[in-house]
Amino acid sequence: MNPLARTIHAAGTAQRSRRVRSDAVFVGVSALCFAASTAATIAGSASMSAMGELPMPGGWTMSRAWMPMCGQTWAGVAASFAGMWVVMMVTMMLPSLMPILWRYREAVGGTRVGRLTVLVSAGYFGVWAMFGIAVFALGVTLAALAMQLPALARAVPVALGMVVLLAGALQFTAWKARHLECCRATRGHCRKLTADARAAWRHGVHLGLHCCHCCAGLTMILLVAGVMDLRAMAVVATAITCERLAPGGERVARVVGAVLVGGGLFLVARSFVTG
């Protein structure tokens, strides 16, 4: 082998070695983030359960996540909810986000791919953080109205059943299918990306917006069941991951929709019987 060939071979070997190390770091950091967020989510759920729930007219209970505890300001409640929400989203969304990030890394390559991957992730979870703030504002408003208007509180069980029914119906729409297709984007969708910070951030925001739209119905279920209910989180996270990663994701979405429609009808019927 001549000197030029040896130099090219050595450069290629060094580049492959750097890529393998970078990929190993990506997998390791992702696993650590998932483990840490899962532990924090479990701790947050236990803390919320210890606070108890407020009995309401109509035979249901309201989470204390929507109201300040003794000595706590509204700003503190909002900050606590936002932090809890982001940690919860990392736990639920990271398994289905990792393959997308992996394809992004393959598309852009280069020595800055680690930092760019962080920016994509920050843009993605930044969108979810904004969504969480909107959820908090809506939840606080509805909780205040339910506490002030007993007639409205008594109608909540029927409304929750209707929300589940609506969430199931959304799973069958072309709107859902379009956003799910974007979340299941194939390798070719990433080839036009450029390796710069602005493009990485925008790509993360783009992914986050599609994900929020795609998960709108399933997020409703999470809020109906209880924002920090571990069982609800596990079920919703499993449904989201299967939609994104399993072959025939649209069929999975429709199966989930059928289950939700059935559950919604059951909840509505039960509310009339027990009411």
Structure characterization notes:
This protein is mainly α and 275 residues long. It has one domain. Helices cover 80% and strands 3% of the residues. It is built from nine helices and two strands; from the N terminus they run αββαααααααα. It has a two-stranded antiparallel sheet with strand order 1-2. Strand 1 and strand 2 form a beta hairpin. Helix 4 packs antiparallel against helix 9. It is globular.
Number of strands: 2
The gyration radius over C-alpha positions equals 22 Å
Low-confidence stretches: 186-191
- Could you say how many structural domains there are in total? 1
- SSE string, helices as H and strands as E: HEEHHHHHHHH
* N/C terminus separation: 85 Å
Helix percentage range:
over 70%
Indicate the structural class.
mainly alpha
The proportion of residues in beta strands is: under 5%
Strand order of the largest sheet: 1-2
* Number of alpha- plus pi-helical segments: 9
Main sheet: strands, sense, barrel:
2 strands, antiparallel
Please tell me what the overall shape is: globular
Average pLDDT level = 85
What tags apply to this protein structure?
DUF2182 domain-containing protein; mainly alpha; membrane; 80% helix; PpoB2-like; 275 residues; two-stranded antiparallel ribbon; single chain; transmembrane helix; transmembrane
SSE blueprint:
Layout: H1 3-51, E1 53-56, E2 60-63, H2 74-108, H3 113-148, H4 150-170, H5 174-183, H6 197-214, H7 216-225, H8 230-245, H9 249-274
Antiparallel strand pairs: 1-2
Helix pairs in contact: 1-2, 2-3, 2-8, 3-4, 3-6, 4-7, 4-9, 5-6, 7-8, 8-9
